[in-house]
């Protein structure tokens, strides 16, 4: 189960993920961006800082080329979270519809040409939506995070294989999920 309070406390960092998982813009790498979304007390700061420092070793043109090569030309490192598991299966269409339904429930309207499992869109949803007090939040956000967790597992493996700077960014995202999962106490205690 998701700890919705912890997820809400960490929602600001999802803005950073959105900015750095969409096509790069020079302003994304301005020093104020890092300060705006995350501070050094956040448990995932070390991963984000490693990503940040590594990306600053490249020119903007190199970053753009790396982004396109990594996310647009490699099937293994797609930003579509259901693709690795379901590819073009009928189940994928149903899952995309379910995700879109969650977005609509909270008032997020997608562009018609976008698929609902696009990782930057999913991060934007978590960044922008206020789910506090909504009885549907546990189930709705549970679906979103389950899809993201599953999809980023495959993405992380591919990025590690490519020795990509984006590895640390996705690692930070996955560690953020992990920090928001409730550790349920054992039902049976043995003495």
UniProtKB/TrEMBL annotation:
Keywords: Nitrate assimilation. The keyword Lipoprotein does not apply. GO terms for biological process: chaperone-mediated protein complex assembly; nitrate assimilation. InterPro entries: DMSO/NO3_reduct_chaperone, NO3_reductase_chaperone_NarJ, TorD-like_sf. One of its GO terms (molecular function) is unfolded protein binding. Signal peptide: none annotated. Pfam families: Nitrate_red_del (PF02613). This is Nitrate reductase.
């Amino acid at each position: 189960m998701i700890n919705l309070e912890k997820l809400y406390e960490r929602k600001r960092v999802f803005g950073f993920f959105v900015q750095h998982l969409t096509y790069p813009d020079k302003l994304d790498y301005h020093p104020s961006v890092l300060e705006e979304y995350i501070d050094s007390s956040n448990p995932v700061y070390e991963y984000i800082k490693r990503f940040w420092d590594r990306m600053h070793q490249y020119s903007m043109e190199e970053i753009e080329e790396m982004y396109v090569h990594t996310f647009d030309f490699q099937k293994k490192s797609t930003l579509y979270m259901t693709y690795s598991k379901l590819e073009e299966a009928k189940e994928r269409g149903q899952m995309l519809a379910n995700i879109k339904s969650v977005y609509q429930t909270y008032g997020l309207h997608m562009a018609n040409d976008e698929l609902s499992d696009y990782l930057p869109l999913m991060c934007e949803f978590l960044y922008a939506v206020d789910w506090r007090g909504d009885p549907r939040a546990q189930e709705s956000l549970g679906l979103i995070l389950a899809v993201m967790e599953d999809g980023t597992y495959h993405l992380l493996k591919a990025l590690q294989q490519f020795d990509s700077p984006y590895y640390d960014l996705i690692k930070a995202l996955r560690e953020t999920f992990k920090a928001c999962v409730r550790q349920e106490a054992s039902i049976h205690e043995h003495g």
